[in-house]
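Q: I'm writing a short methods note and want an example of a predicted protein-small molecule complex. Could you take the sequence and the SMILES for zinc ion and return the bound structure as tokens? Please keep the output block clean; save any remarks for afterwards.
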Amino acid sequence: MKALRLYGVKDLRLEEVDRPVPREGEVVLKVAAAGICATDLKAYNYGSRTKVPVTLGHEVAGVVVDAGKGREELLNKRVTLNPNIFCGSCFYCLRGEHVLCPKRYAIGIDVDGGFAEYMVVPAAAFSVGCVQEIPDWLSMEEAALVEPLSDCLRGQLKLGLSAGDSLAIFGAGPIGLMHLLLAKALGLSKIIMCEKSEARARFAERLGADHVVLLSEGVDVAKEVQRLTGGEGVDAVVVAVGVPDAQRDALRVVRPGGAVNYFAGLPAGVKGVEIDTNIIHYKQIRVLGTSMSTPVEFKKALDIVASGRVDLKQLISMRLPLIEGVNGFSEAQKLENLRVILNP
Ligand SMILES: [Zn+2]
Ligand SMILES: [Zn+2]
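A: Understood, no commentary inside the block.
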């Protein structure tokens, strides 16, 4: 079978490898759709944090075509999965904070993933509820994008957002836009996107952002957000872009008593960001970070997409066959592209 494997920085190869065979408790999926995500691009541009070679791809949906002992009832089922595999029994898993599990590993990052014709789902994925059946009416490509949406859902739940709140989102890339769609579905009253690229800002408007602040020289984003919120500032901020200025500005645009989520990590090489902690102290704001999602957050995200309240198709800007995967990686880096989907 064909697989898109990362060997090192900018060294991605389409290879012929053996089709996997499931062991007891595992299944093999025929991959139908897999999204190229910023994490994949980071591994491609700066190196994977784990051993290579590895088949990338952690936003996947497929059909069970081979079932190991004990999983026979899953044959021919369409499934998607939380690619993070948790132990289910450690200090954190027991508290429902699976994402902090010290034994966690991820499909498509630590072990072979979905940029291949077939992929293995480890037995452990089933024991903590990471594998979900896809409803008939949902397309495979939408199901593949449940994974990043589930991360956004966790981010918004941890912020404590509720209907009627106002939110500023820094970055109108695919993840920032997913936050926008989700926040709209949650019933927020005002969503302000802060973005540098004019094209992406306009797209955010088309997707229903209430206001867009186009970040450029001479624009004071804090003043703009104040003006748009009657002088108050927003209830919460999601920083969906790995930019130090955005992390600092987030503290300035949030209202006293509000909350900020540093949702995007900083790129490799950026060592730290100087922030004025007095802002946190005097405004009495809550600053947090989230990444990944727990099994229940993943299931909820799937249910939201299945309900039709969040239409992820709008974020797919390109579909390519797996054999054009290397090209797909260069396409995914372009500003004009949102999600690129590979179809093995
Ligand atoms: Zn991802
Ligand atoms: Zn654990």
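A: Remarks, as requested: Residues 86-87, 90, 92-93, 101, 103 surround zinc ion (ligand 2) (CB under 6 Å). Residues 152-289 form a domain with the Rossmann fold fold (CATH 3.40.50.720).
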